[in-house]
Design a protein that fits this description.
The complex is a heterotetramer of chains A (186), B (368), C (318) and D (172). Chain C is 72% helix and 0% strand. Chain C has 318 residues and is mostly helical. Chain C has one domain. Chain D is 26% helix and 28% strand. Chain D is α/β, with parallel strands linked by helices and 172 residues long. Chain D has 4 helices and 7 strands; from the N terminus they run αββαββββαβα. The chains are: A mainly alpha (186), B alpha+beta (368), C mainly alpha (318), D alpha/beta (172). At the B-D interface, helix 1, helix 8, strand 6, strand 7 and strand 8 of B face strand 1, strand 3, strand 4, strand 5 and helix 3 of D.
Chain lengths: 186, 368, 318, 172
């Protein structure tokens, strides 16, 4: 590594440190309730636990958001939409998975429309345990995410970029084809 | 102007749950609209055929997330009808208590939910904070905040914890004192009234056509068509309560009925706590292992009054270890699919989330 | 030459101050609103974190119209702020005419509309359509009131309009002289700020935040800066036009003290207007777009015409 | 109340050929009709006050090689619930739509078509997919559809060293 490259890398590292400070303290989550664990999110968001203290807030569209919450099981139909949403989000982006259903299917291990392990299809930064996770657990998970961003460990989006073919192959295996014409009522 | 196709949802802040509306809009007016369900489809009806009668108790609350207790209740009622189980008296009353607390929680959530689409986030914050109290009561009663798995065939899983009555009374006293605030904030708020009054009307004749039940039906027909009155289950015939009705079903009426029902629910809870007898809470349903329990053969349908309407299960048993078939009638199936398709056109984009909220549409129970 | 440089420096100073002040104030307001909603609320500097976080993200583009429109929007609004008199200091003397702000402001808004439509998202298109419709709604009554004021005072310079109101204390404010006009002005201000009940063009629950729907990363950060600056312009205009601008709250001989207290007076009025509008916003729901137009063309326009007639024919409020 | 039920059942028996009557629970009657009679019977029942169709569903009797269609009807006036049932051939599952009698059945028919493959003639929408997307197997609620095998094939699970899965659910 030449001197110039090292300087660039150093500057980049410093810049990353500064931006990570802001990123850690201002996490906008995508308002997308993919499954049943989302029912405890209002509790975590509203008066009792007040997620906004941590600088987290809901955002309307994937473009604006930083973190997507996969709240519980994912049916294939939702997986397709989650992939759309995840790929629309601007980098750096994070993914938080709730409950056992995202690890091995949980109680839906034998259900025909529900995928089993989410990390085959999308990279996961934080898992939150519980069926369903209590608001305390949710808040704890978000705190973990914040700490990980500060320590620069929340690198799921890099992993996704680097191993895109592998992820894509798995996605297509489960979904048939990734993009469909969504005209089912006609 | 050209017709534009809009995908509202599944990722959309205005959607209740994970569903999608395909809208064809002309400017702001909806020309056609269809619900695209299935995002929450988990194949419950198939999974239940692969689990024993007892195992299913853990599975069924997940069918309707905001109000899981009705699932447990209809499932238990079905098994009791098939196997002729006599439920202990106290269990009936505890079931009523749990069901009414759940109804209170979901009505509060509806009030908060009305705040989302109309932009009144204060209502959402207040309602969720009040709902949290009920979830804590549930945690104390059953050990879980959301999925209680508390009502089982033959009664309830365990007796109420000591001293819970006082906490419930304290909570509902508190809530009753706060309810007028909600009336001021939501029902009497001029800007909200502008959105709700004379909007999203459900005509009377349509109710029968669609099969809409619950608040939608009572607000249009003016008849007290409530399953708790018409076919009383548990001990609803022993308590006194009124069924609020109306004859003109716009969004405001439906929200008002929800509001009035909360008072009735509080009234029922008070009576239940007064009249609850002592005794056993669970009948013995099986000999030996619950996992080898076989329910006698038969085909039966039971329904209870959920906050959104008639919630029922059709259960087929062949006398085996597992159910042969369980079919779920989601209470919001008619208004969610056919109702939306028929009665949203002609309204504005802004009205779609309000239809969801005031009709109480719960997408997981549509999808199963 | 030197005067131009000084002017530009003053203008830049106003720009920086406007950004810092409004961003801080909106953070504080978020906290107040949080308490209002029975919760703790974020830190008061949360908005800075949000903006810098958004700027540090990787942006995407939907074509040159989209990217250029954002720059045009931010540029237009920045230019407007730089012409704005602050605490009685006019960066470019002689060009603080009210109409300059109206037109420069329109450039920024046009840039935003162009960029949003350029993103190709139908929701953004609907949002822009609604925003423009709403603009038609509030501009008319606001313009009637301001034109009546300009007619009455005989000047359209913002600093002079403010100075006229500082002649005899509280009683010379347009709030006292033209109370009906002030009410109209405040309603229109709510419309300009996009506060509820006139939040229709953002409407997260209906059209997923409208024009902002496709923005992320850098562009979103720039639009947030633009939003803060636009809020600053709108509220400054309101304070200067109706509440007497930078009126001192301490009277006396010492020029420095009076000058400082006039700064405090301006900021105080500014904060009160902003926080009151935020609190009103959180106690109301939002109208539909047809209701917005009907509302603006019913109550405020009638009031505005009455106020104009009073000023023109009775001569009150001059 | 029992008189009402008895009277009604007598009336139905007089008009139609009933294959069976059962009383599975309080205020609940199940009536089995032949496939030919079912539309007339439903029209008659609707006229008699059972205006609400709560549920249309299907049971797969694979041993008999038959599908059983179940209509749950409810009378709000007296609270009596009917199960109107009929059986159709499993190899050629075709049924005429009942949307002209109960318009609310439209989406239930679509649901049954999707999960069992029963075709409803006269319901133009019933063949479209509703809950599933890109489905590539036999209709999933049929008894011969193996959900676990499908799930294992389509959605690979994480490999564990130990076997944590219990046998309770699968045991016969």
């Amino acid at each position: 590594m030449s001197k110039k490259e090292r300087a660039v890398a150093k500057r980049k590292k410093k810049w990353d440190g500064i931006s990570n400070f802001f990123r850690a303290n201002s996490i906008w989550m995508l308002m997308y309730c993919t499954g049943c664990c989302a029912i405890e999110l209002p509790q975590a968001m509203t008066s009792k636990y007040d997620m906004e203290r941590l600088g987290m807030g809901p955002m309307a569209t994937p473009r604006q958001a930083d973190v997507i919450l996969v709240t519980g099981y994912l049916s294939v139909k939702t997986l397709r939409r989650v992939i759309y949403a995840y790929e629309q989000m601007g980098e750096p982006k994070y993914l938080v998975a709730f409950g056992p259903c995202t690890i091995n299917g949980g109680i839906y291990y034998d259900a025909h429309p529900v995928i089993k392990s989410l990390d085959q299809y999308l990279p996961i930064d934080v898992y939150i345990a519980g069926c369903m996770p209590k608001p305390e657990a949710v808040m704890n998970g978000f705190q973990d995410l914040i700490d990980m961003i500060k320590r620069k460990e929340a690198n799921g989006w890099r992993k996704y970029q680097e191993n895109k073919e592998w992820y894509r192959e798995n996605q297509i295996h489960a979904l048939g084809e990734l993009r469909i014409k969504d005209e089912f009522h006609e | 102007m050209k017709e534009v196709k809009l995908f509202v949802g599944p990722q959309h802040p205005g959607m209740h749950g994970n569903a999608s509306i395909h809208m064809y809009v002309d400017g702001d007016i909806i020309n056609r609209a269809y619900l695209l369900p299935g995002m929450l489809h988990r194949g419950f009806e198939k999974s239940m055929e692969k689990r024993t009668w007892m195992n299913n108790i853990a599975l069924i609350p997940r069918i309707c997330v905001p109000e899981p207790d009705t699932n447990e209740m209809v499932y238990a009622m079905n098994i009791e009808a098939l196997a002729n189980i006599e439920v202990p008296e106290r269990a009936h009353w505890i079931r009523m208590l749990v069901l009414e607390l759940a109804r209170l929680a979901i009505h509060l959530m509806a009030f908060g939910g009305c705040g989302g689409p109309t932009g009144l986030y204060t209502a959402m914050y207040w309602a969720q904070a009040d709902r949290d109290g009920i979830l804590e009561l549930f945690e104390e009663i059953s050990g879980q905040r959301i999925y209680h798995m508390y009502i089982v065939a033959g009664g309830v899983r365990k007796d109420l914890p000591k001293g819970i009555e006082k906490k419930i009374i304290a909570y509902i006293d508190d809530l009753e004192a706060r309810l007028p605030d909600y009336e001021e904030l939501v029902l009497n708020n001029p800007s909200i009234r502008k959105r709700l009054v004379d909007n999203i009307i459900l005509p009377k004749e349509v109710v029968w056509e669609l099969g809409v039940t619950g608040i939608g039906m009572r607000s249009a027909t003016g008849e007290p068509y409530d399953l708790r009155k018409v076919t009383p289950y548990a001990r609803y015939d022993k308590v006194e309560f009124d069924v609020p009705t109306a004859t003109y079903s716009d969004a405001q009426t439906r929200m008002t009925l929800k509001y009035l029902e909360m008072y009735q629910t509080i009234r029922i809870i008070r009576q239940v706590l007064d009249m609850m007898p002592k005794g056993k809470v669970r009948a013995k349903v099986d000999d030996g292992s619950a996992l080898r329990w076989k329910v006698p053969a038969g085909q039966v349908y039971s329904a209870v009054e959920a906050s959104r309407g008639e919630y029922g299960y059709y259960t087929v048993s062949t006398g085996e270890l597992m159910p042969y078939r369980v079919a779920v009638r989601g209470a919001s199936f008619p208004q969610g699919l056919l109702g939306l398709e028929k009665y949203l056109p002609g309204h504005r984009i802004d009205d779609a989330p309000l239809w969801f909220d005031t009709m109480g549409i719960c997408s997981p129970e549509i999808d199963r | 030459m030197i005067t131009i440089i000084i002017s530009i420096l003053i203008a830049l100073g106003i720009l920086v101050f406007a950004f810092l002040w409004q961003t801080t104030l909106s953070g504080i307001t978020r906290k107040i609103v949080g308490r209002y909603q029975k919760r703790y609320g974020p830190r008061f500097y949360q908005n800075f974190r949000d903006i810098f976080k958004a700027l540090s993200k990787r942006g995407i583009t939907h074509g040159w119209v989209y990217s250029f429109g954002v720059i045009m929007a931010v540029g237009g609004i920045m230019a407007t702020v730089m012409f704005l008199p602050l605490f009685g200091i006019v960066p470019f003397p002689g060009v603080d005419n009210f109409f300059i702000y109206v037109y420069l402001f329109a450039v920024g808004m046009l840039g935003m509309a162009m960029s949003a439509v350029g993103s190709g998202n139908p929701l953004a298109g609907i949002g822009v359509m609604r925003a423009l419709t709403q603009m038609v709604g509030y501009e008319v009554p606001f313009m009637i009131v301001v034109l009546a004021m300009i007619y009455g005072h005989g000047t359209s310079s913002l600093s002079e309009l403010a100075a006229i109101q500082q002649t005899s204390g509280f009683l010379s404010w347009n709030l006292v002289k033209m109370p009906i006009g002030t009410i109209v002005g405040f309603i229109c201000l709510l419309g300009m700020l996009g506060k509820k009940p006139f939040e229709t063009f953002i409407a997260p629950a209906e059209i997923a935040s409208g024009p902002m729907v496709e923005y992320g990363g850098k562009q979103l950060g720039m639009l947030m800066i633009m939003h803060e600056l636009a809020t600053f312009i709108e509220i400054s205009l309101f304070v200067n036009l109706f509440l007497g601008g930078a009126t001192p709250i301490v009277f006396g001989e010492t020029t420095v003290l009076v000058g400082l207290s006039s700064v405090v007076g301006f900021l105080l009025k500014y904060s009160i207007v902003y926080i009151v509008s935020a609190l009103i916003s959180n106690a109301l729901g939002r109208f539909k777009i047809d209701q917005v137009i009907k509302y603006f063309y019913k109550v405020p326009i009638v009031l505005a015409i009455i106020q104009a007639l009073i000023v023109v024919f009775l001569g009150w409020g001059v | 109340m029992n008189n009402i039920i008895k009277e009604f059942v007598d009336n139905v028996t007089a008009k139609f050929e009933l294959m069976g009557v059962d009383y599975p629970a309080d205020l609940q009657v199940s009536l089995d009709f032949d496939q030919r009679d079912i539309h007339n019977a439903l029209a008659y029942i609707k006229g008699a006050g059972w205006t609400q169709m709560s549920l249309l569903t299907c049971v797969d009797w694979i041993a008999d090689n038959e599908f059983q269609l179940v209509f749950i009807l409810f009378n709000w006036k007296n609270g009596v619930r009917l199960q109107v049932r009929t059986r159709i051939d499993r190899d050629k599952p075709v049924f005429t739509t009942i949307t002209n009698i109960y318009p609310g059945a439209q989406y239930y028919e679509r649901d049954v078509h999707e999960f069992f493959g029963v075709e409803f003639e006269g319901n133009p929408d019933s063949y479209k997919q509703l809950f599933l997307e890109n489905w590539d197997d036999i209709p999933p609620l049929r008894k011969d559809f193996d959900a676990i095998a499908y799930s294992d094939r389509k959605y690979p699970a994480r490999k564990y060293k130990a076997n944590f899965s219990t046998e309770a659910g699968e045991s016969k």
